[in-house]
Amino acid sequence: MSNDVLALAIISGMTVFFIIMLAAAAFYNSRQEKGNVLTGQSGGDDWLFKGFSETMYDAVIKRPPHGVMFGLDVAKYEKNCRVIHKKTDTKKTVALRLAGMVLLLPGIALSALLASASVVASACGLAVTAGIFFILYIYPSYKVEAEAKSRLLVIQDDLPRFVILLEKALDLPIDQAIILTAKKFSSPLSEDLLLSSNEAALGMQGGWQKMLVSLAKLYGIQDFSSLILDITNAYENGNDIREAVARKAKELEESQVYRIEERDTKTKTMVFIPVIIFTLIPMVILLVYPMVQTLM
């Protein structure tokens, strides 16, 4: 009994300490980000573990992050960060994954040792180990990827309406029409267009084309890439851009209908999965079990 209490006390203490450290780090980062937005300056060095992950990365790995590192696709992660306009903390993310892998085996070994003293303590140890592994190894990159997918989905859904408004603004030159439409239409796509237009020299020949091509590569959305290709081809060949945009708007409206129907079908399927698991399968078991008993 005393061994059970001691083991649970140790695990509980480690868990509480780890949670407090995570909460403190999250609170500090939140305050620093708010301060950076208000002052435009980078935060100070007053946090005990500030830059610890990057320091650990430089000390252990000693090379720039590239390729696939500890299960993290570096190029994909950095692209997702650019999609959501998040600072790319590649070294930090890789270092956290390394820490998660390093702590996983000792956590499992400790839980196995506790099994001889208490099954409950062993189960608690495994739960804590799994939680730490999830927080360090999976969550940072998963959060970025989920936010990027969500933003790209909104952009894809907003694209048909954006193109319709763009067609109406084509009495102006195409670069001005794009900026005007972005200002009038509230969307993540508009935010990216306006941000890119500030960074690109639109007055230079090919400036707006490079901007659109760069966004198309970043998004990887087929409809958007096709739109940019049609616009740039019409511009370079001296064809009517309004006609190309109008044709694309019609195509996007049709594809949007199919996409919504496909999404509804997937949603309905996901709804029926729990019904199948918790209703149909038990019914089948109840029907088959008497037959099996009779045969035996």
Observed structural traits:
flat, 2 strands, 296 residues, two-stranded antiparallel sheet, 1% strand
Overview of the structural elements:
With 296 residues, the chain is mostly helical. It folds into 2 domains: 2-31 and 50-149, no CATH class; 169-258, no CATH class. It has 10 helices and 2 strands; from the N terminus they run ααββαααααααα. Strands 1-2 form a two-stranded antiparallel sheet. Residues 36-48 have low confidence and may be disordered.
Q: Give the biggest beta sheet.
A: 2 strands, antiparallel
Task: Report the mean per-residue pLDDT as an integer.
Answer: 79
Distance between the termini: 45 Å
Give the SSE string: HHEEHHHHHHHH
**Integer count of domains:** 2
